[in-house]
Structures are given as structure tokens and as C-alpha cells.
Amino acid sequence: MVPPPSLKKIPQTKFTPNIVKKGVNKVSNGVEKVRKERPQPSSSPSSTSSSSSSSSSSKTIVVEKKVVSEEIIQQKKALPVFSARKALVENVNKHSTVIIISETGTGKTTQIPQYLHEEGYTNKGVIAITQPRRVAAVSISKRVSDEMGVELGQQVGYSVRFDDKSSKDTRLKYMTDGMLVREAMLDASLSKYSVIILDEAHERTLNTDILFGLLKKIQKKRNDRIKQLEKEEQEEETKQDPESSNNNETTIQKIKPKISPLKIIIMSATLDAELFSNYFDNAPILYIEGRQFPVQIYYTNELQKDYVDAALVTVLQIHLQYLNNETIKSEEDENGGDILVFLTGREEIENLEKLLIDRIPRLPEGCKELLVRPIFAALPQEQQMKVFEKSPKGSRKVILATNIAETSLTINGIRYVVDTGVVKSKIYNPKIGIDSLNVIPISKASARQRTGRAGREFEGKCYRLYTQSTFENMDDSSIPEIKRSNVANVILQLKTIGVHDILGFDFLERPPLPTIKKSLEQLYCLEALTDQGNLSELGKKMAMFPLDPMYSKTLLKSVEFNCLEEVLIIISMLSVESIFFIPKDKKQEVESIKKIFFSPEGDHITFLNVFREYQRVKGSLEWCFNHFINIKSMTKVINVFEQLVKYCISIKLKIESCENDFEKVRKSFISGFFMNVAALQPDKKYKTMVDSKEIHIHPTSFLFDIKPQYILYNELTITTKAFARNVLPIEPSWLPEICPKYYGSRPIPQDQNSDSSLNTLNQFTSADDN
Ligand SMILES: Nc1ncnc2c1ncn2[C@@H]1O[C@H](COP(=O)(O)OP(=O)(O)OP(=O)(O)O)[C@@H](O)[C@H]1O
Ligand SMILES: [Mg+2]
Fold first, then answer.
1. CB of residue 270 inside a 6 A radius of ligand 1
2. What share of the chain is helix, strand, coil (3-state, %, to 5)?
3. pLDDT value for 698
4. Per the record, which residues fall in region Disordered (predicted)?
5. Could you give the CA distance from residue 759 to residue 1 in angstroms, rounded to a whole number?
6. What separation in Å is there between the alpha carbon of 77 and the centre of ligand 1?
7. Cβ neighbours around 279 below 10 Å, total
């Protein structure tokens, strides 16, 4: 029998409604405490002609062809935001930007966009709701389309990288923040949107941070333009001959501004609201009181040395409680309620999955079936979506998740959350120019978000596998991604949108100066920036692709080497976590199968061989099965490949094949990854050619045993050592030939703090904004 972990119940830590701060607007039960002014005509749309009915009092809402169930109608009315609807809408009418805070699960993401739609905001444009993660955008749009009784992809849609389910009829568009940044690159005013909701703003992802500055700028630009048009309209009116006043209406109509103001809404359950209010010119903060169902929080009495083991014990302990019927609260919850466990990454998830599966046969008789469902970013979308499936009768789901499931999601049936209190976080070191992944404690905001995945359909419990004093010592919020990431892509995107003065850009919080410097240098060496720091023609094309600059440069250069087809295939293959499916008991067998595809010209060519063979056998399932090929991964590869081909066709790139002349492919990769090169040392270790750091080929590389003299790698991960992944052998003479800017006349920068680096930086940031 498993020893129970020592969990202490803290009776007073039940989730309580938000405390309303002094001096801010309170929205509660429909009573609003803000000045009541009539909405300005230019910013509040009429509440007519919404295609979905707003009469929530009717028994059944019929929208287009589907019928919305009475159950959903009642659920919507029971949400805390429902009673605050009037006040919410009035505030949005009155103010350009509004900050909305309410407990997790109160209806922000699903309801507020529907209210605004019903109030007519979608007559003036689309409402975008951004999400930091694709799984949230996809699952919530599905829920909202059900609530509105419409087909997903019609009035309600989603747009995430490489997957767009929206149409010209889409009025509510759930999308990842990255997709909205990409749209801004094509239309710098984001003119099709009337309202943009930046949801889960507390997450402070790189793209949400870009959007804060960008939307603030766009809002001002659109308002200035409206004012200018209104002024012109007035001047035109005064010029009118009084006798022809009958014609006034037609003339005014003709010059009436087509542009509409942009409403910005910042939303979260756990936000430093004052910071945002100050940034958005004292935007009002609306706190919506109440929460759906209470969640009881428990802490451990002592620190847990092995949190995976503690999670295992806690899950089993919860599961065994069922035998005593302790937890059955309702019919929906007849299985005792599902369990959601937060871990740091794939390896841990698979480890705990194995431990649980090993224990299941040893559980006492009478226990319900335990279904283990993993969810992490690298898992194909269809598999991720499995966590949302209802547990079959007589079974209970245990979802093992990374922080991908931390915010925004409602997963049916979750009664218990098990929070290990840690997260894997990427930190960029501008000195050496690489990211490292570290396991670190979560913030208080993250802990609250994790807890908030329960208490959405019924009461819940959250087991925090750390002590209460650990919680109290946690940071209030996590370090924003922009402060710990390489910002080369951010700079490329901002410059494409027309923001040239990166240092002068109105960031909510600016990235560190050494990071900006390093990223500018990287873009310059990639030839994305000119000597004056402007976007080069190549840079403009690079920004078109939803890829990191190093990949987009490789892709574009491969056109010159006549091997775009091969490079597109390789980049698509590299976009998935693992091509091979390795059953635990067949490791040796898989290794010998892998050799069939092996090429001494590198991992990339080996992957290319797999793809070509997969194409030759027309994706035969039998072939995949016999060769341990992960079918789901290959389906994703094909999807990414097709999308990339579309991008190439749209900018008229010639897709040619080099057949088997793989030197061309290797040279193309040098054009993008010239900084990721290393040379073998007599002691069989590698040293990077840029800064002489010791690295090793990762054991999963096909070149692990071969150890070529000079290598290029796509990725460096730092665990116990620095490991190079996806490795190609190269010739050192190719470096100055392909990258004269870096290895030719220009010396390799050794000291990133040198004056010359600063001069380069100044040069890059002196240009004015467009
Ligand atoms: N797929 C779903 N199935 C069942 N109920 C759902 C689903 N999605 C949402 N709900 C219900 O709607 C409520 C509101 O969800 P919503 O995502 O709008 O809340 P939220 O305030 O945005 O929460 P969070 O701060 O956690 O993002 C949930 O608590 C749940 O009761
Ligand atoms: Mg939400």
C-alpha cells in the first residue's frame, strides 16, 4: 500500500471573492460604481442587427440552424459575469481601454465577447480574443460556438499557427497572440477589428507584450485619423451652401469615416492591474466579484524532495478515497471527479504515466478504472484534445499536464488539481546567445491559475505539493518572457510593422539592453538588416514566414542552392518533437530500424530520407507501424510542409529539388545557423567556433557515435551538459564563403560589451519610426 503524503488541510484558505480595491471601479451584481455618462456616439456601436439573439430570458435560443440547450442557457446565466453585463458593456462603450479582473472560471473568456457581439460591436468589425496558447484558442472557440449554436469556423472561429478555422463570416475570433502579431504585419492598423481582447495578460508572453505596445499605438493612430476625418467633415459642412442643405446628408454620408475606433480590453484573473492601468493612460480597472464554485486548498506539512513521487502518491490517495464514497457530490461527478496534475515537461509526464500504469493493476478491488491522459506542447493537437473528452462511465481521468493547461482552459470533470509548484522556464543568455531550460518555482499568480482549473463545474480541491510558507515566499508573478528571451524575431516583426526605433518603442517593460544588442547583431549577420539598421529585402521576406529568423533565412537561401524542396521538408520534419515512436520494450529494434534511413551527411538528411520513403509508400499505415514511425507526427509534418509551400508560392519562390546533392542542403543551413557551429577537440569534446564553449552531441543524434570534425546544430539544450541537437557535418571553408559578414572581413565578435557593439546598436536604433 502506498504511504499517504503528509497533507495538511488549511481550512481558511478557501477561495474567496476578489477583494475590491479602494479607488477602482467595482462591478458586482450589475451595480456599477462608475460615472454614468452616455456613451460617445463614435465609440459605442448600436445594439441592432446582431445575428444572434440577446434575449437570454427565452427558453431556447435558436441561432442559425443549431439549438442551444437549456442547460447551457442556465449555465451562462449562473456565471458571475452575467450579472455584471450591463456595467461591463457601459464601461467598454465609454472608455477606449478597459482592464477586467475576475476569478478564474467566472466567464470572462467565453461570455464577454458574446456580450459585445450582442451589443453590436461586431457590426463594426471582428472581435479578436487572444490566448497565449493554441490549445486554449481551439477549445474555447469550440465551447463558444456551442453556446451560440453556430458551426465552428462560421460566426465563431479560431486561428493558430498552421491551423485557421475562421471565415469571412467570423465575428468572434479566438487566436493565439502570435497570429495577431502576424496579422499586424500585413495590416498595420488591424482595421478589420473593432475590439481586441488581450486575454490572460498576466502570462506576459513575448507576443502579448508586443501587442500591448502595438495596440496602444494603433488605437491612437485610428483615433487621430477619426478626429482628422471628423474635422474635415465639419469643414465640409460649413462650406455647404445653406440653400442646398437638403443635400447635406448625402455629402456627409459620402465622407463619413469608414474607420472605427479600436477598443482594447485587458483580461485576467491574476493581474497587476495598476501596472496596466498606468500604461494604458489610467484605463479603468473593473473587478467582477464572485466565483463559481469553491476550491479547497491543501498544503503539505513538509517540503517534498521528490515532487513526482509526491504527485503519484497524491493521485493514488485521491483515487482510493472513492472507495469510501467520500467525494461523490453529484451525478455528473459520479466517478469521483477527474484529476489534473501539473508537472514541468514531457519526460516527467511520461515518467509519472509509467508509474501510474504500473500501479493500476495493484489497486484494490472495486476501484474505478484510471485513465492517464498526458498533455504537453509537443503532443499533436488531436492527442492534446483527448483530455477534453468526458471520462467514460466507471472510469476517471488523470491528466498529466505542463503549464500548457495552467490558464484559460475548462477541462470537463476536473475536481482535483495537484500542483507540484514548479515549471520549466526558458532563459536566454545574451552573452553566449543561447537559451537554457531550467526548472524553477512557479509564481503566486501561476499557483492561483492552476487552482482555478478546478471549481468550474462543481466544487474542487487543490493539493499544493509544497508548504504554505513556500507559497507565501513565491514571487507575485512570473518574469515576463520578453525579459528572458532572444528578441530577434520580435525586432524583425516590429520592423516589418514599421517600428524602426526598437529602443524607443513603448514597451510595457523593455527587454534588457544586452539582449536587444545581441538580437540586432544576429539579424544583421543574417542579412535581415542593412548597414543602416533598416529591414533588407531579404529581412522583409524572412518576416513573412512563421518561423524563427534562422530557419526563414535557411529557407530563403536554399532557393539560390536549388534545394528549397528538401529544406522545406527538413524544416517541417524538425517542427515535430519525435518522428519515431519508441515502445519501451523495443528500444533495440527501433535503433536497428532507424539505421535504414541513416545518412552520414547528418540528422537532417536522415529525416529527409524518412519523409521521402513515407511519400513513396503513400503514408502506408503498415509501413509506419513496421518502421516505428509516429503517424500523428508525420500527419503534422505534412500539414506544416503544405502550409510552408503556400507561403513560398505566395511570394513566388521557385520550389526546386537538388535530388541527392545534399551539400547544397548543408550549405543552406549554414546560411541560417552559422553561429551554431563547433569543432571536435582531441579530447573528443566539441568547442563552439564562436565563443569556445564546450558542447556535446546529444545521444539522440544519428551522429552521436560518428563525431564529425566540424558540426552545425539547430538547437542547444543545457541539462547536465550543453547538448547539440539536430546535427550536420560541415566544412569550415564554407563559413566565410556563405557568411562573409560573419566569417569574412568582419571579425567574429568575442566581447559583446565592446564599444564596437554599442556603435552598431546605436546605428540600428537611430532611424525614425514610420
Ligand atoms: N468546455 C466547457 N464545458 C463545460 N463548461 C464550460 C466549458 N467552457 C467553459 N465552461 C463553463 O464556463 C465557465 C466560464 O469559463 P471561462 O473560460 O469563460 O472563464 P474565465 O473567467 O475566462 O476563466 P479563467 O480566468 O480561468 O480563464 C467555466 O467555469 C465553466 O463553468
Ligand atoms: Mg479565461
1. no
2. 40, 20, 40
3. 93
4. 1-60, 229-252, 748-770
5. 67
6. 13
7. 19
Measured in Å, residue 460 CA sits from the centre of ligand 2 at 18
Q: What is the DSSP letter of 768?
A: P
Q: Is 106 in the pocket of ligand 1 (CB under 6 A)?
A: yes
User: How many angstroms is it from 175 CA to the middle of ligand 2?
Assistant: 13
Beta carbon of 107 within 6 Å of any ligand 1 atom: yes
pLDDT tens by residue, 269-324: 999 999 999 999 999 999 999 888 999 999 999 999 999 999 999 999 999 886 66
Quick check: helix, strand or coil at residue 636? helix
Q: What's the CA gap between 108 and 129, in Å, rounded?
A: 11
Whether residue 412 has its Cβ less than 6 Å from ligand 1:
yes
Q: What is the DSSP letter of 353?
A: H
Cell triple for 175? 487566436
Q: What span, in angstroms and rounded, lies between the C-alpha atoms of 373 and 399?
A: 5
| Residue to mutate, 106, 288, 404, 456, ligand 1, most ligand atoms under 8 Å from C-beta | 456
Element (H, E) at 99: strand 97-102
- Range with the poorest average pLDDT among 193-197, 527-531, 578-582: 578-582
In 3D space, the residue among 176, 183, 169, 178 whose CA is nearest the CA of residue 140 turns out to be 176
Please name the residue whose Cα sits nearest to atom 7 of ligand 1. 410
Yes or no: say if 418 and 311 are a contact pair by the CB < 8 Å rule: yes
496 lines ligand 1 (CB under 6 A): no
- All structural domains of the chain: 25-48+69-233+256-288 (3.40.50.300), 295-479 (3.40.50.300), 480-533 (1.10.10.2130), 535-660 (1.20.120.1080)
Residues in the chain: 770
